[in-house]
Amino acid sequence: MIDIVLVAAVVPTRRGVLEQTLRRFQSGGARVLLACLFDPAELDLPASLAQARWLVGPEDDPSFDRRVRRAEPGRQMWIFAERDGVFRRRGARADVLVALDPRAIHTVWQLAQRNRHADAVYGLTPAANAVQARLANPAHFATRRMLLSMPSPTLAARGVLRSATDRGRGLARRLAGKRIMRTRIGRGIWRTVVTAPGLSDTRRIGLANRVYDSMLRAEQVEAATATAVAVARKVRDTRRRAQLTSRATAAELAQGRVPEHLASVVGSQLSLADECLRRGDAQGAGAAVSTASALLFHRGIHFDVLSSPLVDDPAGFLAPIYHSEVGRALAGCRGRARAAKPPTGRRQRILFITRLNDNFLGEIRARYATHPDCETRYLDLDSDPNTQPLTRRDSAMISHILAGDSAYGHEVTEWLKPHLEWADTIFIDWCAASAALVTLIDPGPTRVIVRLHSYETFTLWPHMVDFSRVDDIIFVSEHLRDLTLRAVPALVGPTAPRARVISNAMELTKLPRPKDAQARFVLGLVGISAVAKDPRWAIEVLRLLRRRDDRYRLVLLGSDINPRASGAAARYLRELEREIGELTPAGAVERWGHVEDVPSALTGIGVILSSSVRESFHCALVEGAASAALPVARDWPFFAGRDHSARTLFPADWVVSTPAEATERIIANTADEAVWREQGAAASRHALTTWDWNVVARDYDRLFFGG
Amino acid sequence: MTSARPHPSLPRRRRRSGQPTPGGRPHLLYLAIGFPPAAKSCAYRMRETANQFCALGWDVTVITICDQAWEREFGLDHTLSEGVDPRVRVIGLPLFRADLETDIRAFPEKRTLNPGRWLTELREREQKLFPEPVFGGWRIELERALLRAHRERPSDLLLTTCAPYVNLAATVRLWDEEQVPYAVDFRDGWSVDVIGGGEAFPKDSVAGRWESRALEHALAVWCVNDPIADFYRDRYPELADRVRVVRNGFDPDSLPDPADRATPAPDAGLTFGYLGSVNFKPAFLESVLAGWRLARRDEPLLARATFEVRGHIGAGSAREDNAHMELLRAAAPDGVTFGGPVAKADVADTYGRWDAIVLMLVGGRYVTSGKVYEVMASGLPVVSAHAVDHDASNVLTGHPLWTGAVGLEPTALADRFAAAARLARAATDKQRTTGRALAQRYARAAQIAPAAEYLTALTVRSGVNSAPQEVAR
């Protein structure tokens, strides 16, 4: 029996080829071990074809993680592999060792030093050839196994050499170590070195990357970015220059800082895209735009911090896009052959489209599913595994828009065209990938409605949607409309769709229920998974309240912030945890986590908070108000002082500017139970008569049927 | 053309040892990387060229790279060598493409640690010697090999065929040191961007300077089609009368016997086929397969049809393991199969089993591809999957079984697949005969013979010391 060990550091993209080769191995009587650095379930291969082994590192071992991080790309897998006894043993007696991707080569190379009789090859076809050769001449290979039973004699020598080299590297590391990088002189010297004349691009970039990483480790993020930008000026190749600065900028963005050079770095990526576009390389242009977009709309500066440069000056911040050729090409109007036309002689067909998130569509779909004047269908673009990958190829989407034609575009058309042909009206929830995908296609006489909630404004998506093919754009609040119209020029041009504001669809009548008397001193904050919700503001309110009356408590509902989202998010969460930790022993803060039955939970909450820096509408506050909790809304800083803001959305007395003001409002309205209940009832009445679905549905009827 | 004086490119002073022996056979050095048994499409042209010179009385020494080197790339086809004149001497240089090595034991550790960086550095090193990635590093060895071959047996003419373009460096070296007259079979040219159209690099770039220098003294510059020839005539007006079109043409032994062909039985599924290297982008193949899928869905004649793809896919570690293979496998439910390469000796049988041919070609007006002639001469309906403004369209115009070029839009391609299916069922003998007859002028021998005769007349029959003769162009 032939023993084969396949090694893969990344999920093989050609799964079909892999499966077919494994079947050939199986039919030749081979035994296969597939060792990988990812969950083997991702391959979805029949277990009978290969024994899969996931090479994992020790849990919670920072030194191991550090070692992996510092290792060269090829060695990283070997660090995992060499500690896996089963893998080592199978590798030592295998007949054929196979690397499936570049990052697996070194691991196979290492095994080959220890197992000298095995074939060690890169790629599936060479592996199949090696197996074939062994099947054809088993005697030859049996002799070879006998003669080469010992590991390579150079192996031990190499080990000694490596330890000596490591010492040399260690010295270089110390010279560029954290301690030196924390000094201005140290940083200055290294900056001089990496920008010195006479270095080749390759050497300069290699050195700059090491210096840059070291500065990051020393938490000198700004200096690291400035060094990378200075080095980039010396690099001749446009692509490598853009890569260098983009990498540096991304690291600073992840820390939640707006890099000083952001505009120029984004500009250089867009110049690269323009260059690609001019020479007809739409794919290259698409990739460069994707990179520029990842920087410009990095969550570290829009979502995981308490401000966003886009809000202060949308036109200035997005200028690199507006001024690039690719930006203009993306915003180009392809138009439609025919104007939208309502059906005659039959019910209107409405197609609701979303991707993954249908949280805000429930009431709307339910109403029109049974409405006598229409028939409806629903399409979640993520639901079909065959077409779902099309929704994730942002770069292909950009390339298609830039090139005007592509195989990708044809696939999308083939998929969505029948849906468009069926519908008289398409309602696309979220002005994101779904809207960009659908507007790749001329909708013919079908009317297209797109609803934008909030986060989309801080992404490239609205700049990729062809609004000349959209009839109506719906915003859920006026302040989001104002901001988006300032950020997206295509929404104010001559081919812009009608802009309407319609509140979110919420079934509020189920919420008013008798509240417990103790709820009077319970502050509730529903939804804390984003930094923009700023729960630390609510903690500050609680602190101020408890200075005057320690009966006040805060309950937090919903899942926590994901610390892996970015360095900025992790930093915020650390601070939040610290503050919660201080208050928890006294029972002042409780975390209820995800709650299924919100109406019941709200019976225990007497004051509902909106502590966010940015909201489009804040359903949770309105639901709390409908439940007769006392609403206290922060004047969301992103919009405060503008024509429209929290102050124009809610009754004036609900809105406060500071934690101190919030404290005053809460004390004034909860000191007495009767006052609290009276204020709660008033808030509930206002919510029900303004935002309940019975009221808002009339706006949707007008949207779909006119009048 | 009548020449009143010796050709300006002929050396004024005879090289030291290159004088042909009176009454002996002249010696041609043929620098042809890709010569049989390399399983490459250029091997057919090279084989015919060497054979033609042999037939014209030359002793031919071919310089190529060794068989083991080809095994790393697209492999070997020994049936190709069977058709090489036995008098042709072949020198196989041990020049290997390190990037295609798949034996990890042969990898330096540095390569295993960071294959991407290793490859980048390799490419940089290669281009330090000559401005051509992948092959630039072969310059020194090629120069030495040509000088060695010439010094062992003085040559009267060097015929260099590109790609790789690094061959030009060795050609120039032999000229500089030994004044051996030479011609360049430029095929697809170098400074012309045959895929995108226009100029690939300017005249004053490093590559541009190499090209100018190499062509300056060339007796002849052969190109595979008129657009490329015109490009070179425009770029180098002083060379205009030395640039000539030598089309690739087809080999009659690759064609199926018309007598064996019968109209497919009505209940039998049709077989469409593509034969050639799959070297276009995956998106290109995706479009063709999408067109095929639509056609099979909508055209009853294609309901049980199959589409057989034959040829080389990928090289080195990616051989038959790349995005194209994945696409082909995913298209298996649509009757698409991949059967690997076809030996030259089996090409006729392969065409003989097919009912229609799919011609997938990249590029545009500067690209003809040798396949188009073979496809035309096969007498089978042809589905064109290439740009409308493609030189293949010029060649195929007038072919009664050609369904026209419609670009790569899947619905348009589907329509052409359906049209070819109808032709496969209904084509008359007359139509097939007309198609084959139209292709006759593109027989490979007929294309290369005049060019070889011209060079023979120019270098041997005229000679440096003899009176100039009339030579046919």
What portion of residues of chain B belong to β-strands?
Answer: 5-15%
Beta-strand portion of chain A reads: 5-15%
User: Which percent range fits the helix content of chain B?
Assistant: 25-40%
Largest interface: A-B, 37 and 38 residues
Measured distance between first and last alpha carbons of chain B: 6 Å
Counted beta strands of chain B: 13
| Main beta-sheet annotation of chain B | 7 strands, parallel
Rg from alpha-carbon coordinates of chain B: 23 Å
Protein name (chain A): Glycosyltransferase
Pfam families (chain A): Glyco_trans_1_4
Organism (chain A): Pilimelia columellifera subsp. columellifera
Protein name (chain B): Glycosyltransferase
List keywords for this structure.
heterodimer, A: about 700 residues, alpha/beta, Rossmann fold, 4 domains, six-stranded parallel sheet, 17 strands, B: about 475 residues, seven-stranded parallel sheet, 17 helices, about 15% strand, Glycosyltransferase (chain A)
Summarize the structure.
Chain A is of the alpha/beta class and 707 residues long. Chain A is built from 34 helices and 17 strands.
How would you portray this structure in words?
The complex is a heterodimer of chains A (707) and B (473). With 707 residues, chain A is an alpha/beta fold. Chain A has four domains: 3-155, Rossmann fold, CATH 3.40.50; 173-315; 348-501, Glycogen Phosphorylase B (Rossmann fold, 3-Layer(aba) Sandwich); 517-691, Rossmann fold (3-Layer(aba) Sandwich), CATH 3.40.50. In chain A, strand 15 (607-610), helix 30 (619-626) and strand 16 (630-634) form a beta-alpha-beta unit. In chain A, helix 27 (535-548) crosses helix 32 (659-670) and helix 33 packs parallel to helix 34 (693-705). Chain A starts with a strand and ends with a helix. Chain B folds into two domains: 22-249 and 444-461, 3-Layer(aba) Sandwich (Rossmann fold), CATH 3.40.50.2000; 252-442, Rossmann fold (3-Layer(aba) Sandwich). Chain B is 39% helix and 13% strand. In chain B, strands 3-2-1-4-5-6-7 form a seven-stranded parallel β-sheet, with helices on both faces. In chain B, strands 10-9-8-11-12-13 form a six-stranded parallel β-sheet, with helices on both faces. In chain B, helix 6 crosses helix 7 (167-178), helix 10 runs parallel beside helix 11 (323-330) and helix 13 (371-377) runs antiparallel to helix 16. Chain B is globular, with a radius of gyration of 23 Å. Chain A: This is Glycosyltransferase.
